[in-house]
Amino acid sequence: MPIDAPESVDGENLRPDAGVIKRSLVIAGHRTSISLEEAFWRGLKALAKRRAQSINALVAEIDANRGRANLSSAIRVFVFESANQ
Is the pLDDT of residue 27 over 70? Predict the structure, then answer.
């Protein structure tokens, strides 16, 4: 099932050609910054919406299950694998 890409994330308009975007999130009570390509932010937001979760809650779940992987990389893999299910 393909992920519907939103036209904005947190009220920001998205462009399909935009590069890496850095955003701050609160995960497990601490603030962190995550850098992802715009396409992955769109996919992450669509997945959170589909799962009825906030982006923070979904990233916290990914964070808790990522093992030794870099968080940004773990998010990319999660979004990619979810898109192919």
Answer: yes
